[in-house]
Design brief:
Oligomer: single chain
Largest sheet: 7 strands, antiparallel
Number of domains: 2
Strand content: 25-35%
Structural class: alpha+beta
Number of strands: 9
Length: 235
Amino acid sequence: MRKSQEIVSPETIDLRSFEIFKGLTDAELESLNQNLVCNSYKRGSIIYNEGSRINGSYVVVKGILKIYKTGFDGKEQIIRFAKEGDLIGFRSIVSEELACTTARVIQDAVLCYLPGDVMTNFIKGNPEFAMSLMRLTCRELGESNKFLTDIAQKTVRERLAEVLLLLMDTFDLDEDHTLQISLTREELANMVGTATESVIRLLSEFKSDKLIELNGRKIKLLNIPRLIKIGNVYV
């Protein structure tokens, strides 16, 4: 379900501030401005569905989205989150395949749609843009490989500690050391790859061990070095 609120003018957005577009020429940036279609979306909006054919990619200007796959039992497996500056949906354009994930807004967002033919022209005509896209693809592939290794080799307790640290790295902490993203227990479980009940139990254990503090969906990290040790994370 897509809940588009209003059209946003691309001219009000500093496109060159986005890492993926830094290598574009002035002429290409002008073409980008002319072809982008920007809209705001409410929490819960589905941008594209796994298995659908999408004809372009999306630049996240504002907000947060979760990118996930759905298992045979209907359970979500969150692959990653997309935030300001990220490009999503580009893999399907490059590979000419159906979307392999679903993208859902979890914090009100502004997204700009980039038609596939425009992106393809940039890839063919601008080596720097093509290299940026290749680096992004390799980074996402590396993250996927790491996730598969963690699922196979780490305990649920270790994975939860690592997920909390990943959320810290991705979204930072506020001045009170609280994660700047609010997730349901089910969403956390979908990141860890376990049952919601297991995450609820482990969060309670982490709280008792003075590793975290819970305030509704908000999680405050009290002992980061200990979480690093529990998660077997190399920093």
